[in-house]
Amino acid sequence: MKKMVWSIILVLTLTSLQAQSGHEIKINLRNCKDTVAYLAFYQFDKLYVSDTCKKVVNGNIVFKGKKNLDKGVYFLLSQEKGNYFDFIVDEQTQKQQIISDKNNLLENLKAVNSKQNESFFNYIRFVTTKNKEFDAFKKNIKEQKKPDSTALLTKEFKVLNDAILENDLNFIGQNRGTYLSEIINLKTDKTTKDIPKASNGRPDSIFAYHYYKKHFWDGVNFQDDAMLRNPFFTNKLKQYFNTVVVQHPDSICVEIDRMMLKTKQDTKMNMLLLAYFTQTYEIPKIMGMDKVFVYMVDNYFKTGKAKGVYDDSVIKIIIDRGNVLAPLQLGKIAPELYMIDVPTHDKIAKMGFDTAKTSEEITKIYYDNKPEIEQSYVTLSSIKADYLILLFWDVDCGHCQKEVPKILEMYHDFLKENKDVKIFGVYTQNDFEKYKKYIIDNKIDWINVYDGVHINNLKDKYDVVTTPVIYILDKNKVIKAKGIGSEAIKSIITQMEKEYSTKK
């Protein structure tokens, strides 16, 4: 029994020593004049330097350390930080040797003691050759100026893709169980040739889409952080959320939850995915997608799942940001505004608001005159219109000076067309005389108001950080559009017209 116990201890000790044996990457790059070289790696959408060789002599480069390198795709960086070539490091290749020639890197690239890297280099050579063939074909077509060049290029591109896909599948099969197989799997689209016919006799595109979506992440282990350390994962993630998932915030939220559930808390995968989704949808490219950010705040930040990903102070900032955006989502009733119009300014000024210097002074003046002030308000809810354009702007804002004349012209066009359009123009600063002069000089004849009694926090209430900021509301004050430029106003109102007509 004692012998067996000691045997187990010995095995565990040897395993532990092997795991902590460190790394040693030797590279012989002939014709390389560098004196310094860097070992770098991919992680999500960033590149990081892992080690530095400060004594490169005749192209002999050594990266050595007491700790094992994390599994992933690494690359050799030149003295000028240019990428020489990629290679794989995993549990079996902490000590490896690679040789090549700077004058012809890819052709001479050879892994001395790593079958996996030799296969990887062969794969890169194959894809590079195919791409060169396509480029040569494209150049030839262009030189011949063939009228059907687009069709020919499309056909040739399909041939190229099919050849690469077949090669990918063969590589995955031949290298199954290796990191190489896993990263090639990441870049390989999952399609099927067995597509049934639809009722029109053509291949069923809906079936093909559902198959593609269902199998998109086949073979990807979201509990292995090494899936992040390659140049393919981030592109695949963006492709999925930008082109495969239906571009609606509710659909995206479902997919985010599904993906996050596949990860483990406190892993790099979990942390970087959470950070990516939060950052991507805070200021999205598509209007209304900030609903995803609000969802992330409610379900990941307010529930404590973001702890460890961000500091507490940052978490608070993100939660506060979510709280600002939550009432401003498309489909929500626009928050109320209590504004003062131009004719009422003199009465408000006499109360002392224009000369008050502290918030305490303003508060006292407000409560001393509260009944009269409340009778002076021009509220957002009091404005009746089928289409209400809510515009936050400033006379000194350069962008406003370009946009306001365009919006004014558009407004007059709407009136000529007998459209029930009104503009609630909110001046965001407090220099009343400058504001009044500007609207008179430029004949701005929409509803002109400003926050004369300092009761509206425009930054928090309407996320007005810069100007101009435009919202479009329907007759019920429901937000239909936001964060748009003047060029989008007409098309949005046209779309709203269609919605109104279908409801009649």
Keywords:
4-stranded mixed β-sheet, disordered N terminus, 15 strands, 47% helix, 7-stranded mixed β-sheet, alpha+beta, 504 residues, 18 helices
Strand and helix layout:
Blueprint: H1 2-19, E1 23-30, E2 37-43, E3 46-53, E4 60-65, E5 72-77, E6 83-89, E7 95-101, H2 105-108, E8 110-111, H3 115-144, H4 149-174, H5 179-186, H6 205-214, H7 233-244, H8 249-261, H9 268-282, H10 290-301, H11 312-325, E9 338-341, H12 345-351, H13 359-368, H14 370-376, E10 378-379, E11 387-393, H15 398-416, E12 421-427, H16 432-441, E13 447-450, H17 458-462, E14 469-473, E15 479-482, H18 489-503
Parallel strand pairs: 1-7, 11-12, 12-13
Antiparallel strand pairs: 1-4, 2-3, 2-5, 5-6, 7-8, 9-10, 9-13, 11-14, 14-15
Helix pairs in contact: 3-4, 4-5, 8-10, 9-10, 10-11
Describe this structure in words.
With about 500 residues, this protein is an alpha+beta fold. The chain is about 45% helix and about 15% strand. The chain contains 18 helices and 15 strands. It has helices spanning about 1-20, 105-110, 115-145, 150-175, 180-185, 205-215, 235-245, 250-260, 270-280, 290-300, 310-325, 345-350, 360-370, 370-375, 400-415, 430-440, 460, 490-504, and strands at about 25-30, 35-45, 45-55, 60-65, 70-75, 85-90, 95-100, 110, 340, 380, 385-395, 420-425, 445-450, 470-475, 480. The strands form three sheets. It has a seven-stranded mixed sheet, covered by helices on one side. Strand 11 (about 385-395), helix 15 (about 400-415) and strand 12 (about 420-425) form a beta-alpha-beta unit. Helix 3 (about 115-145) packs antiparallel against helix 4 (about 150-175) and helix 4 (about 150-175) runs antiparallel to helix 5 (about 180-185). Mean pLDDT is about 90; it is low at about 1-20.
